[in-house]
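Module 6 notes. Inverse folding takes a fixed backbone as the condition and produces residue identities as the prediction. Think of it as a translation problem where the source language is geometry and the target language is the twenty amino acids. Below is one complete input and output pair. Work through it position by position during the lab.
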């Protein structure tokens, strides 16, 4: 029935774009859209293009050249420019911080951004505020800040708890340290904590995969995303294999 198997949401997204790209000029379309009220609930996505390191399997746009102050200034201006538009008066049911790695920003800066979004838009009382992160950036200050400004969901890029594989993927911190940080987030009350796991990385055995799954089960997290290793052409992995 399905002639092609997609191994990640990135592959699926590329295929979907072939069928759902609007055949019209984007700018006037967006201007018309934003000038009218729409009672349907909204999701706000905030992209943070910074990372503290580049994972060997990653092909996403990200930057180690981090002018965070400029980013913060421009984001504040954009929030202000959007807040008055009729389209943005509708209730906001979720805010999602993706990247990059949003927690590459300093904790006070990230907390300030969330507070500005809360004061500028019509967030419903039980809005989900979700932040992508790595476990090693969830120090105590970051966790306390996220909790204090209402973050109630974390998506943690773990990939594996295996120490050798973490080095292969250029992940920071040991598997034990990652477990400790995840448990800290759960104990703090951010129960909707989810992690990413990658399988079929070079050298992985069924026993190694089972060990990752056992650790994940013991942590009692809310959910997980499970990806076969994808090697984008722009990744460090791809260059090392060419």
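Target side of the pair, the amino acids:
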């Amino acid at each position: 029935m399905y002639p092609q198997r997609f191994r990640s949401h990135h592959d699926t997204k590329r295929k979907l774009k072939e069928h759902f790209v609007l055949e019209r000029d984007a700018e006037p379309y967006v201007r018309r859209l934003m000038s009218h009220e729409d009672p349907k609930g909204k999701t706000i996505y905030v992209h943070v293009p910074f990372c503290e390191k580049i994972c060997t399997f990653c092909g996403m746009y990200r930057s180690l050249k981090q002018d965070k102050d400029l980013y913060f200034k421009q984001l504040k201006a954009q929030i202000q420019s959007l807040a008055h538009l009729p389209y943005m008066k509708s209730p906001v049911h979720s805010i999602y911080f993706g990247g990059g790695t949003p927690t590459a920003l300093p904790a006070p800066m990230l907390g300030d951004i969330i507070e500005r979004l809360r004061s500028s838009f019509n967030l419903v009382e039980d809005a989900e505020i979700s932040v992508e992160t790595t476990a090693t950036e969830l120090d105590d200050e970051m966790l306390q800040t996220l909790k204090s400004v209402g973050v109630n969901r974390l998506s943690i890029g773990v990939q594996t708890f295996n120490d050798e594989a973490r080095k292969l993927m250029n992940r920071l911190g040991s598997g034990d340290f990652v477990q400790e940080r995840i448990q800290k987030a759960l104990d703090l009350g951010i129960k909707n904590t989810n992690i990413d796991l990658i399988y079929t990385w070079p050298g992985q055995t069924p026993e190694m995969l089972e060990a990752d799954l056992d650790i994940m089960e013991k942590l009692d997290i809310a959910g997980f995303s499970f990806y076969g290793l994808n090697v984008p052409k722009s990744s460090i992995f791809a260059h090392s294999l060419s």
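Reference fact for the lab report: The longest strand covers residues 123-133.
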